Amino acid sequence: MAIETFTWPTExxxxxxxxxxxxxxxxxxxxxxxxxxxxxNKEDSYPITYSGQKAKVLEIMAFFDRHAGAKAFLWTTPxxxxxxxxxxxPAPTPVGGGVFKLTATFDRAFQP
Length: 112
Known about the structure:
InterPro entries: Phage_lambda_TipM. The chain is mainly β. It has one helix spanning 54-67; strands at residues 17-20, 22-26, 32-36, 42-53, 73-76, 82-87, 91-96, 99-108.
């Protein structure tokens, strides 16, 4: 089965969380060594928001249900970088008039 792509437009404005996983060795004389922890030490996550009609939000939720928080999908970051991501926490909230606000966080995933 091919990897699916998340193609729905998301609202801009939320800042991503980007960190680099490091291993540190601290010595008694104050000297410290740091090195990247593994080949994929960059961890990034992107909060996204989608506002729209109930039918469209149900379509997106079905996409998330198919991936069940563990199966990765393709998504293009706000900087235009295509990558693999997972989503473990989608939250649709009714706003009124059949409109919903869907919030979620996309976490970077890596192929084995």
